[in-house]
């Protein structure tokens, strides 16, 4: 009688890598009204009144402030929409993105 050997089945789980995250950064300028910046932060980034005010003040004092962190597509979309909201009103409001370290 021939000898039968069995091998255990090996399940290979594909390893999915988490997407890299990107920071949305508010760049301070001396022309956009503070109230408008707060309105954009509340509308686009869903920040509370207090959070939006703190982000705006931090950007005003330090020159820049990280607003939030998202995946690349979301971060770029939100930064573009927020910047476009400022342009629509004639303000030089600027949001940028950069990879999180």
UniProtKB/TrEMBL annotation:
InterPro entries under this entry?
ClpS, ClpS_core, Ribosomal_bL12_C/ClpS-like
Asked if the keyword Lyase belongs to this entry, the reply reads no
Domain Adaptor protein ClpS core: residue ranges? 18-96
GO MF, one annotated term: peptidase activity
Determine if Hydrolase is one of this entry's keywords: yes
Q: Name one Pfam family in it.
A: ClpS
HAMAP family associated with the record: ClpS (MF_00302)
Family affiliation: Belongs to the ClpS family.
Please describe the quaternary structure of this protein: Binds to the N-terminal domain of the chaperone ClpA.
Specify the protein name. Answer: ATP-dependent Clp protease adapter protein ClpS
Per the UniProt record, the source organism is Mesorhizobium salmacidum
